[in-house]
Amino acid sequence: MIREFEHIDLRDRNSFHVAQTAARLVEFETPDELRELFSAGAPRQWYVLGGGNNILFTRDYEGVLFCPVGEGITTLGEQGGTVRLRVEAGVEWDVLVAWSVERGLWGLENLSLIPGKAGAAPVQNIGAYGCEVKDALESVEMFCVETGNMLVMDAAHCGFGYRESLFKHALRGKVIITAITLRLSRTPRPRLEYGDLQREVEALGGPTLEHIREAVCTIRRSKLPDPAVTGNAGSFFKNPVVEKPVAERLRESYPDMPLYPAADPTKVKLAAGWLIDRTGLKGYHEGRVGVHDRQALVLVNLGGATGGEVLAFARKVQAKVHEKFGVAIDTEVNIL
Q: Which of 265, 266, 269, 245 is nearest to 257 (CA)?
């Protein structure tokens, strides 16, 4: 069922809790409803707003926000221990992870407690603890705004990279994701490359699905602020990927600097949180905005901050990191 709102306060629809408004917001459940909404053509300005967990509104939004609210999870079939699921875009991601763990399905457990909706997961190629959504994704169903047709794109064609996809670039503003299909497994496939996760799982008694999910949730809760209590969008910055010689030169000056392999073997991934921490900004704040005191990747709204204040503070953090290390850190959060 289509539900429409005009001049709506977005404070409770974005995890930073900034008090901006939208001229119009529309909730939809099905592709047919989307087709109806776009039957007269696309609005001049529009954006898909899922859970509001990876966005910073810096001004009132003068266009239309489309919000998927379909919450169906359907088992499409099982073969050789592989289970295929169709998940509608409005499903809360962590509800999906819990659902899969309860049914003994491997593949999403490392992505526990990531906020947001299932439809947004491919856009950002969400990831944590050595896993990304692309590892379990089979295909994406989407509504083509220009033609009104439904399209299905295989995961191999989605242009996935580190927090990247075609949906952020070539397909931005052209399609709306309505559902995803996942391939999960009944065969145990624990991914415990990260030391803190491995230690937590071992302390719980070993690598079962339940233990891995519990361990990930425990670690995330210990490091990350609850958006319901403190406004934030999780990791505000992406880990920078640099050429190997750059990483090696930095490692000479900072022997304890953590380095991680990148998809490109000629490059290395640095830890943005570590870089920010070493500038002395961890726990630092100016006015109503600050860097979280337990995870330097996270910027927090300490109460009543505007999106503009958060963005200005983020630019200062980027400048400090570049000044000290000569490395640019990009924002992970979508800024409107």
A: 269
Number of CB atoms found within 10 A of residue 101's CB: 19
Q: Do 258 and 284 share a domain, yes or no?
A: yes
Give the integer Cα–Cα distance in Å for 84 and 226.
Answer: 32
Which listed residue (138, 139, 235, 278) is catalytic?
235
DSSP letters of 36-105? HHTTT---SSEEE-SSSSSEE--S-EEEEEEEE----EEEEEEETTEEEEEEETTSBHHHHHHHHHHTT-
Rounded to whole angstroms, the Cα distance separating 157 from 49 reads 24
pTM of the full predicted structure? 0.85
Residue count (the chain): 336
Would you call 332 a catalytic residue per the annotation?
A: yes
pLDDT (tens digit per residue) in 59-71: 999 999 999 999 9
pLDDT digits (tens, 9 = 90+) for 197-255: 999 999 999 999 999 999 999 999 988 888 888 899 888 998 999 999 998 999 999 99
Residue ranges making up the domain that contains 294: 231-335
77 plus 45 within the same structural domain: no
Query: What number of other Cβ atoms are within 10 A of residue 24's Cβ?
Result: 17
Which among 163, 165, 200, 278 is annotated as catalytic?
Answer: 163
The count of structural domains within the chain is 3
Residue of 71, 164, 214, 332 marked active site: 332
Q: How far apart are the first and last CA of the chain?
A: 27
CA distance 15 to 38: 28
CATH of the domain at 168: 3.30.465.10
